[in-house]
Amino acid sequence: MPTRTYGAQSMVAPLRRVMVRPPDAAFGSAEAHRWHYTATPHLATARAEHAAFVGVLAAAGAEVLVHDEPLADHADAIFCHDPVLVTDRGAILLRMGKALRRGEEEAIGRALERAGVPVCYRLHGSALAEAGDCLWLDERTLCVGLGFRTNLEGVRQLREALGPEVTVLPVELPYFTGPDACLHLMSLISLVDRDLAVVHQPLLPVPFWQLLIERGLQLLDVPAAEFATMATNVLALAPRHCLMLEGNPGTAELLRKAGCAVETYVGAEISWKAEGGPTCLARPALRAGGRGDWAAGPAIRAGGGGGAAAPA
């Protein structure tokens, strides 16, 4: 069987290939009120933080693909997790629920194609879906949050794209602070192993909570104060090896007590101001443990618009 170069139908299998997008001029000049940031990011500091973040991914054994195709007036494009799902069939280009982000989908699709990941489906028409609402419980079960960023037509088209071998389960999300804020399903839960997750239990829909318990997941409920600082946004580099935003010590301690190796990164500019954590900053293209594996060791190479191979 040939070596696989794409397929990420897991949240926790070892990360082998991952796409990132360095902070650019659009990010550094973002108007806070327009983009729902707490303040305009400082670009030089943001670039340094992002480079350190990328270093953690590479040190964990992932090949880092850099998407740097110019995208004017797309500050949120740094959060390259959201416009696309990478499946065993290829990339599914989504259709962003946040209108300001439209156009990111095709750009990251081109970057993935240059990296050897084919596009197999494009959401279209009235469908809306963002990958922050898409949580793989296992390789054949995708939970999809229904809220302000993802709608029922998006769910229907995801079912069509994934085919009968994948079960797609809608999860209704709460109103919380309204349509201008970003509440994804993955704002409430991150898997760090097949049977372990960090959650913000008060906002979990009851049927979804019951499903998690029936599946045998241990739920680590983050301290209430740390939900506001994105403690539930945790990127699994491998089972029980995870990366989280610095400044959430209570959640980090819960993870360590559960047997996890916890790494942190500084994200004053790339995360705190722009309200996106480590899962948002990374688009897994290949996780081990599916149909085949990726044999390459740590490396960083360009997968975007032909610019530098690493963030400047």
Total count of strands? 16
Query: Low-confidence segments, ≥5 residues, pLDDT <50?
Result: 290-312
Query: Could you give the order of the helices and strands?
Result: EHHHEEEHEEEHEEEHEHEEHEHHEE
CATH homology group: L-arginine/glycine Amidinotransferase, Chain A
| CATH C-level | Alpha Beta
CATH topology assignment: L-arginine/glycine Amidinotransferase, Chain A
CATH-level-2 architecture:
5-stranded Propeller
The number of distinct structural domains comes to 1
| Helical residues, percent | 25-40%
Main-sheet strand order equals 15-1-2-16
Biggest β-sheet, characterized?
Answer: 4 strands, mixed
Rg over C-alpha atoms, rounded to the nearest angstrom: 18 Å
Shape: globular
Number of helices: 10
Average pLDDT score: 92
Content of β-strand: 15-25%
In short:
With 312 residues, the chain is an alpha/beta fold. Helices cover 25% and strands 24% of the residues.
